[in-house]
Amino acid sequence: MPNFVVYTNLSKDKIPEDFLQKACAFISKELGKAEHYVTVRVNADQMMSVGMSSDPCASVELKNITDGAKNKEHAVNITNFVESTLNIPKDRFFITFTNERREDVAFNGKTFA
Is position 16 annotated as part of the catalytic site? Predict the structure, then answer.
């Protein structure tokens, strides 16, 4: 169920070809969820800025069925992952966590509750 989304002002050609696969494997391992449940999306070429600067930046979202207890740990690891794979400095993006309830997420016609 994890849904990992990166909005960035990087052009599509600056996103490594294997980024989706690497991000899927990373999120799967980070959260302890099977890869076939992980969704990764990249929205490149966004008109955006952070701190009034259009230098490379991003907005990162992670939606997951969780209570959020490990969000601090995940923040460090996701920051390192985004910085190392997309070359966006860690002070140029924010991460938003959305902690979903099992009954609010469905897959294959059934909720996880």
Answer: no
